[in-house]
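Late entry, written up from scratch paper. The run itself happened at the end of the previous shift, but nothing got recorded in the book at the time, so transcribing now.
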Amino acid sequence: MAQHVEPAEHPAYPVGLRLAGRRVVVLGGGTVAQRRLPALIAAGADITLISPSATPSVEAMAETGEITWVRRRYEDGDLAEAWYALVATTDAAANAAASAEAERARVWCVRSDDAEAATAWTPATGRGAGVTVAVLTGHDPRRSAAVRDAVLEGLRDGSLAAPAQRARTPFVALVGGGPGDPDLITVRGRRLLAEADVVIADRLGPRDLLDELPPHVEVIDAAKIPYGRFMAQEAINNALIEHAKAGKSVVRLKGGDPFVFGRGMEEAQALAAEGIACTVVPGISSSISVPGAAGIPVTHRGVAHEFTVVSGHVAPDDPRSLVDWASLAKLTGTLVILMGVDKIGKIAEALVAHGKAPDTPLALVQEGTTATQRRVDATLATVAEVVKAEEVRPPAVIVIGPVVAEGPDKLTR
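Output as recorded:
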């Protein structure tokens, strides 16, 4: 006599649904719908939301025409002609009735309140490096999300080796590396680094990221390019052009943002003159990130309604200076100076001479966002002496204004 054996739970069969132009019905306009709708919209689905109410974010999707909102409760027949349904109301009876209709009509149905009663599950999904990652771990959504995040992080930072099998098109990218902490580069910047054949790096770029590059990648220190008869920037431009014409994928890794005192436009123009297109990847500028890491907001309600960023590499009395220091002295907001440590004495004198109060607070943040970050406080009247006594050295961001006195005593990084 054969013995009945209870089968083990069958795993879900993974599949990618192509919903572009196909009817999808979402029941319930709460936070579940708010989380799921953007992906359905991105998939091109023809979405009908049935719910008497909705969160402000979901309502905005209806107002912009991304979804059609029927403002009532679920009724039998609402799933007619649907390819996919998401049931996410707070009415258990309505959820059960909709689930039963989906079963009869053979519509794949996700239920937020009862996964066992659903015919489909929503995986933890993410996209990065041209790949869509979807993870299902049965009844453990937190583990699904953790696995997804681990895979995406590996793809983005290059630690998960998954080379594309199709030939890829070489590229040139001007990448802003951020203020120094390697975790503050953008996701796109990190992905392009992982795909590069050649990296031309600035001294102020996030150096720790260079250690993560595969052995075949050629790393060129821009500060050590043999200039010969060329100016430094011209030599860097020539290196970009040379490697690009050789068919290499080239990343110009710069500190901060390429277009904030980074001479990125000069490099883009040089490439364009040779018929070479480049991608610009913005970076977090040290002008706002470094003060923030030191507990200084560049704007603060009731204190500063604007901030101005200037270069301090040329002293105010130098005929090459393009900065209107007289006008800056009259501003009531925050003044952020980059590349001005060795000129700060003359800068302070000029600001005071044009009417800025000598006791205006000032802070210098050296090597901001890195493990060696330090903050030194002074005033316009004392800064020249303080910089000398404290041996403040570049790179350092200088913040001038009442915001220096705001903020908590300690911040964690």
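Residues 1-8 have pLDDT under 50 and may be disordered.
(Scratch paper discarded after transcription.)
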